Amino acid sequence: MSVNIFIVDDEADVREMVSFTLKRQGFNVVSAADSRTALKKLGEILPDLILLDWMLPDISGVDLARQLKADERYEDIPIIMLTARGEEDDKIRGLDAGADDYITKPFSPRELGARINAVLRRASPSHGKDVININGLSLDLKGHRVHAGNTEVNLGPTEFKLLQFLMGHPDRVFSRTQLLDRIWGSNVYIEERTVDVHIRRLRKALEPVAYDRMIQTIRGAGYRLTAEE
Prior knowledge:
- 39% of the residues lie in helices and 21% in strands.
- By secondary structure, the chain is an alpha/beta fold.
- The protein folds into 2 domains: 4-123, 3-Layer(aba) Sandwich (Rossmann fold); 131-225, Winged helix-like DNA-binding domain superfamily/Winged helix DNA-binding domain (Arc Repressor Mutant, subunit A), CATH 1.10.10.10.
- A hairpin with a 2-residue loop joins strand 6 and strand 7 (137-140).
- The chain is elongated and about 55 Å long.
Protein backbone atom coordinates (compact mmCIF):
# COMPACT_ATOMS: atom_id res chain seq x y z
CA MET A 1 0.00 0.00 0.00
CA SER A 2 1.37 3.40 -0.90
CA VAL A 3 1.36 6.02 1.83
CA ASN A 4 -1.13 8.90 1.50
CA ILE A 5 -0.27 12.22 3.15
CA PHE A 6 -2.95 14.90 3.52
CA ILE A 7 -1.73 18.53 3.79
CA VAL A 8 -4.12 21.12 5.22
CA ASP A 9 -2.59 24.60 4.94
CA ASP A 10 -4.01 27.88 3.66
CA GLU A 11 -0.69 29.06 2.20
CA ALA A 12 -0.45 27.90 -1.41
CA ASP A 13 3.34 28.14 -1.52
CA VAL A 14 3.64 25.93 1.57
CA ARG A 15 1.28 23.34 0.08
CA GLU A 16 3.22 23.32 -3.18
CA MET A 17 6.62 23.07 -1.46
CA VAL A 18 5.52 20.29 0.88
CA SER A 19 3.73 18.40 -1.91
CA PHE A 20 6.80 18.57 -4.15
CA THR A 21 9.08 17.43 -1.32
CA LEU A 22 6.89 14.51 -0.27
CA LYS A 23 6.20 13.29 -3.80
CA ARG A 24 9.97 13.13 -4.37
CA GLN A 25 10.18 10.95 -1.28
CA GLY A 26 7.61 8.53 -2.71
CA PHE A 27 4.46 9.64 -0.87
CA ASN A 28 1.06 10.24 -2.43
CA VAL A 29 -0.14 13.74 -1.55
CA VAL A 30 -3.60 15.32 -1.25
CA SER A 31 -4.09 18.90 -0.05
CA ALA A 32 -6.73 21.34 1.14
CA ALA A 33 -6.63 25.07 1.94
CA ASP A 34 -9.12 25.09 4.83
CA SER A 35 -10.83 22.84 7.35
CA ARG A 36 -14.19 22.55 5.59
CA THR A 37 -12.52 21.45 2.34
CA ALA A 38 -10.39 19.05 4.35
CA LEU A 39 -13.44 17.44 5.96
CA LYS A 40 -15.08 17.06 2.55
CA LYS A 41 -11.98 15.41 1.06
CA LEU A 42 -11.67 13.09 4.05
CA GLY A 43 -14.99 11.66 2.93
CA GLU A 44 -13.33 10.69 -0.35
CA ILE A 45 -9.88 9.50 0.69
CA LEU A 46 -8.57 8.29 4.02
CA PRO A 47 -4.94 9.37 4.50
CA ASP A 48 -2.22 7.60 6.48
CA LEU A 49 -1.07 10.88 8.05
CA ILE A 50 -2.29 14.50 8.19
CA LEU A 51 -0.04 17.57 8.12
CA LEU A 52 -2.22 20.21 9.72
CA ASP A 53 -1.54 23.94 9.85
CA TRP A 54 -2.38 25.68 13.13
CA MET A 55 -3.77 28.87 11.55
CA LEU A 56 -6.59 28.17 9.10
CA PRO A 57 -9.17 30.67 7.79
CA ASP A 58 -12.26 28.86 9.12
CA ILE A 59 -11.86 26.20 11.81
CA SER A 60 -8.45 26.37 13.48
CA GLY A 61 -6.06 23.47 13.06
CA VAL A 62 -6.21 22.72 16.79
CA ASP A 63 -10.02 22.55 16.72
CA LEU A 64 -9.96 20.41 13.59
CA ALA A 65 -7.48 18.02 15.20
CA ARG A 66 -9.72 17.73 18.23
CA GLN A 67 -12.73 17.10 15.98
CA LEU A 68 -10.94 14.39 13.99
CA LYS A 69 -9.68 12.59 17.09
CA ALA A 70 -13.24 12.47 18.42
CA ASP A 71 -14.46 10.72 15.25
CA GLU A 72 -14.11 6.93 15.09
CA ARG A 73 -13.28 7.06 11.39
CA TYR A 74 -10.24 9.31 11.85
CA GLU A 75 -9.12 8.83 15.46
CA ASP A 76 -6.21 6.53 14.56
CA ILE A 77 -4.81 8.76 11.79
CA PRO A 78 -1.62 10.45 13.07
CA ILE A 79 -1.45 14.25 12.88
CA ILE A 80 1.61 16.51 12.68
CA MET A 81 0.91 20.18 13.38
CA LEU A 82 2.62 22.71 11.10
CA THR A 83 2.91 26.19 12.54
CA ALA A 84 5.00 29.29 13.07
CA ARG A 85 4.10 29.15 16.77
CA GLY A 86 7.09 27.98 18.74
CA GLU A 87 6.15 28.67 22.36
CA GLU A 88 5.88 25.74 24.73
CA ASP A 89 2.25 26.52 25.67
CA ASP A 90 1.22 26.42 22.00
CA LYS A 91 2.97 23.07 21.48
CA ILE A 92 1.19 21.64 24.51
CA ARG A 93 -2.17 22.88 23.18
CA GLY A 94 -1.54 21.14 19.87
CA LEU A 95 -0.48 17.89 21.53
CA ASP A 96 -3.42 18.02 23.94
CA ALA A 97 -5.74 18.33 20.91
CA GLY A 98 -4.48 14.96 19.68
CA ALA A 99 -1.50 15.87 17.48
CA ASP A 100 1.23 13.22 17.40
CA ASP A 101 4.05 15.63 16.64
CA TYR A 102 4.75 19.31 16.07
CA ILE A 103 7.04 20.99 13.55
CA THR A 104 7.74 24.73 13.53
CA LYS A 105 8.01 26.73 10.30
CA PRO A 106 10.37 27.15 8.57
CA PHE A 107 11.52 23.54 8.36
CA SER A 108 13.81 21.65 6.01
CA PRO A 109 12.52 18.94 3.63
CA ARG A 110 14.80 16.40 5.34
CA GLU A 111 13.40 17.21 8.77
CA LEU A 112 9.82 16.98 7.51
CA GLY A 113 10.44 13.60 5.89
CA ALA A 114 12.17 12.29 9.02
CA ARG A 115 9.32 13.46 11.27
CA ILE A 116 6.70 11.87 9.01
CA ASN A 117 8.51 8.53 8.89
CA ALA A 118 9.05 8.55 12.66
CA VAL A 119 5.35 9.17 13.33
CA LEU A 120 4.30 6.54 10.78
CA ARG A 121 6.62 3.98 12.41
CA ARG A 122 5.04 4.68 15.79
CA ALA A 123 1.55 4.34 14.29
CA SER A 124 2.44 1.22 12.31
CA PRO A 125 5.63 -0.71 13.20
CA SER A 126 5.67 -2.25 9.70
CA HIS A 127 6.05 1.13 7.95
CA GLY A 128 8.94 1.07 5.50
CA LYS A 129 9.31 -2.72 5.56
CA ASP A 130 8.93 -4.96 2.51
CA VAL A 131 8.15 -8.02 4.63
CA ILE A 132 6.01 -8.16 7.79
CA ASN A 133 6.62 -11.20 10.00
CA ILE A 134 4.61 -12.04 13.10
CA ASN A 135 5.20 -15.37 14.83
CA GLY A 136 6.11 -17.13 11.60
CA LEU A 137 3.33 -15.63 9.50
CA SER A 138 5.10 -13.64 6.79
CA LEU A 139 3.56 -11.12 4.38
CA ASP A 140 5.69 -10.00 1.42
CA LEU A 141 4.47 -6.60 0.20
CA LYS A 142 6.48 -6.54 -3.02
CA GLY A 143 5.93 -10.18 -3.97
CA HIS A 144 2.31 -10.01 -2.79
CA ARG A 145 2.69 -13.40 -1.07
CA VAL A 146 1.88 -14.79 2.35
CA HIS A 147 3.72 -17.69 3.97
CA ALA A 148 3.21 -19.61 7.19
CA GLY A 149 6.63 -21.11 7.69
CA ASN A 150 7.42 -22.77 4.36
CA THR A 151 3.77 -23.06 3.33
CA GLU A 152 2.32 -20.46 0.99
CA VAL A 153 -1.14 -19.16 1.88
CA ASN A 154 -3.34 -18.21 -1.07
CA LEU A 155 -5.39 -15.07 -0.45
CA GLY A 156 -7.69 -12.96 -2.59
CA PRO A 157 -6.72 -9.31 -3.10
CA THR A 158 -9.12 -7.99 -0.44
CA GLU A 159 -8.05 -10.60 2.11
CA PHE A 160 -4.41 -9.73 1.40
CA LYS A 161 -5.06 -6.02 2.04
CA LEU A 162 -7.03 -6.85 5.17
CA LEU A 163 -4.24 -9.05 6.53
CA GLN A 164 -1.63 -6.43 5.60
CA PHE A 165 -3.49 -3.75 7.51
CA LEU A 166 -4.05 -5.92 10.59
CA MET A 167 -0.43 -7.16 10.62
CA GLY A 168 0.71 -3.56 10.29
CA HIS A 169 -1.23 -2.68 13.47
CA PRO A 170 -0.90 -5.75 15.71
CA ASP A 171 -2.92 -5.99 18.92
CA ARG A 172 -5.06 -2.98 18.01
CA VAL A 173 -8.82 -3.31 17.78
CA PHE A 174 -10.52 -1.87 14.70
CA SER A 175 -14.26 -1.50 14.29
CA ARG A 176 -16.01 -2.61 11.11
CA THR A 177 -16.40 1.05 10.11
CA GLN A 178 -12.68 1.69 10.48
CA LEU A 179 -11.79 -1.42 8.47
CA LEU A 180 -14.27 -0.44 5.74
CA ASP A 181 -12.67 3.01 5.49
CA ARG A 182 -9.07 1.77 5.54
CA ILE A 183 -9.46 -1.23 3.21
CA TRP A 184 -12.30 -0.30 0.87
CA GLY A 185 -12.17 3.51 1.12
CA SER A 186 -14.53 5.94 2.78
CA ASN A 187 -16.23 6.83 -0.52
CA VAL A 188 -17.38 3.26 -1.15
CA TYR A 189 -20.86 2.51 0.15
CA ILE A 190 -21.02 -1.11 1.26
CA GLU A 191 -22.52 -2.78 4.32
CA GLU A 192 -20.53 -3.43 7.47
CA ARG A 193 -21.25 -7.17 7.22
CA THR A 194 -18.96 -7.18 4.16
CA VAL A 195 -16.09 -6.98 6.66
CA ASP A 196 -17.38 -10.09 8.42
CA VAL A 197 -17.50 -11.98 5.13
CA HIS A 198 -13.86 -11.19 4.32
CA ILE A 199 -12.72 -11.90 7.88
CA ARG A 200 -14.30 -15.37 7.54
CA ARG A 201 -12.52 -15.89 4.21
CA LEU A 202 -9.22 -14.78 5.73
CA ARG A 203 -9.63 -17.14 8.69
CA LYS A 204 -10.56 -20.02 6.37
CA ALA A 205 -7.39 -19.45 4.32
CA LEU A 206 -5.26 -19.35 7.49
CA GLU A 207 -6.96 -22.33 9.16
CA PRO A 208 -4.98 -25.12 7.38
CA VAL A 209 -1.72 -23.60 8.67
CA ALA A 210 -3.19 -22.98 12.17
CA TYR A 211 -2.95 -19.18 12.03
CA ASP A 212 -6.68 -18.45 11.94
CA ARG A 213 -6.77 -17.83 15.71
CA MET A 214 -4.56 -14.77 15.24
CA ILE A 215 -7.63 -12.97 13.89
CA GLN A 216 -9.74 -12.29 16.98
CA THR A 217 -13.28 -11.00 17.27
CA ILE A 218 -13.70 -8.46 20.06
CA ARG A 219 -17.37 -8.52 20.96
CA GLY A 220 -19.04 -5.14 20.55
CA ALA A 221 -15.81 -3.55 19.26
CA GLY A 222 -14.50 -5.19 16.09
CA TYR A 223 -11.45 -7.25 15.15
CA ARG A 224 -7.77 -7.42 15.94
CA LEU A 225 -4.74 -9.49 14.99
CA THR A 226 -2.91 -10.71 18.04
CA ALA A 227 0.89 -10.88 18.04
CA GLU A 228 0.94 -13.25 21.02
CA GLU A 229 2.14 -16.82 20.55
